[in-house]
Write a structure and sequence with these properties.
Elements (H helix, E strand, L loop, with lengths): L3 H8 L1 E6 L7 H16 L4 E6 L10 H6 L5 E2 L25 H8 L2 H8 L6 E16 L14 E4 L3 H8 L4 E4 L2 H9 L5 E4 L1 H6 L8 E17 H6 L2 H35 L4 E4 L2 H21 L3 H10 L2
Parallel strand pairs: 1-2, 1-3, 5-6, 5-7, 8-9
Antiparallel strand pairs: 3-8, 4-7, 4-8
Helix pairs in contact: 2-10
The structure holds (2S)-2-hydroxybutanedioic acid.
(2S)-2-hydroxybutanedioic acid binds next to loops.
Length: 317
């Protein structure tokens, strides 16, 4: 007897989607939403299996796994892609963005598309940018209220030249730790402070060891949603269309929930009596922006600054 169900399953295309954060985060939730929408649109012809929390691959090996087609999708922060695509360092510049609207205009607009197209040179299909939100500072021994507080601190950063330099400009040293090892390093007091979104600080429990949190909104944490290019090219046109449409809908949804999830985690942290929560003063933010100025000039020198002008005009249109 012919087993229709089994035949159907045999013809089913599977996308393995690996990422490094908890499910109840903007990226975790957007991945689930993308999987649901795509399975619906393709009438089950594509099945997406998500491997969250670095359970399959971590910061150090997920890109290679994607390029080898061991997984078909990953969504690293754009900061982690700067070694592969140096132009993307622009997105790490501190205080480049000030509102969620500016972020959405740039990442979901023509500039975002241009940035994603740069992935073609490394045989990766860039599907979209997703957002998490603005980064804050969490620290263990003392609150970080003014730039002088960073002197001689060990600050964890993602592997990005701009992120490492920004803390060096404040007198700190930067340590590159992969996200799945970060909690252990924090617990072993190997790191004094880190920059991250509230959803990452909350979902990974960093606040239990780094209980000083300063709301700085000094940088952006967002993601590039990547697909193995050969796998993309192997899809028939109608399924490629389904992937594009599902990604558009999941991206719109991601930008909506990112702000909400970070706000919810802020409320939870505000209620925690062990958390010392501060907000960077406007006057102090101005001093930080002044300290960070050399980052902009060196960026403008060593990488074509057309994107910087384009982003600034997009933001101030
Ligand atoms: C980090 O390493 O702090 C972030 O990339 C984690 C993530 O992917 O949001």
């Amino acid at each position: 007897p012919v087993d229709e169900e089994q035949q159907g399953l045999n013809k089913q295309i599977v996308i393995n989607f690996s990422h490094v954060v908890a499910e109840d985060t903007p990226k975790g939730q957007a991945a689930i939403k993308f999987a649901e929408i795509l399975e619906q649109k393709s009438n089950g012809r594509i099945h997406v299996v998500i491997y969250p929390n670095g359970m399959l691959y971590n910061d150090n090996n997920e890109l290679k796994a994607l390029q080898n087609n061991d997984v078909q999708m990953i969504a690293p922060t754009f900061s982690k892609m700067t070694k592969t695509i140096p132009t993307w360092e622009i997105l790490d510049l501190p205080y480049l963005f000030h509102t969620d609207e500016e972020v959405e205009d740039v990442l979901n607009g023509r500039i975002g598309e241009q940035l994603l197209n740069q992935l073609n040179r490394v045989n990766i299909k860039g599907l979209a940018f997703w957002n998490n939100g603005f980064k804050q500072m969490s620290s263990e021994k003392k609150p970080l209220l003014k730039w002088e507080d960073f002197k001689n601190l060990k600050v964890r950063t993602m592997p990005s030249h701009v992120l490492q330099s920004q803390f060096e400009l404040l007198g700190a040293s930067s340590i590159n730790t992969s996200f799945d090892e970060l909690y252990t390093e924090v617990e072993k007091h190997k790191i004094d402070a880190q920059e991250n979104t509230l959803s990452n600080i909350y979902s990974k429990g960093f606040y239990k060891v780094q209980n000083h949190i300063t709301l700085t909104n000094h940088g952006l944490l967002g993601y590039a949603v990547l697909m193995n290019e050969d796998f993309w090219n192997s899809l028939p046109q109608d399924l490629q269309d389904d992937v594009v449409e599902a990604m558009q809908e999941a991206t719109e949804w991601n930008f909506q929930i990112a702000k909400k999830l970070n706000q919810q985690d802020l409320e939870k942290l505000k209620k925690d009596p062990n958390i010392d929560l501060n907000t960077l003063s406007v006057a102090e933010q101005k001093k930080w922006e002044k300290k960070f100025k050399p980052l902009y000039s060196s960026y403008e020198k060593n990488i074509n600054s057309t994107f910087l002008e384009e982003i600034r005009s997009e933001i101030h249109h």
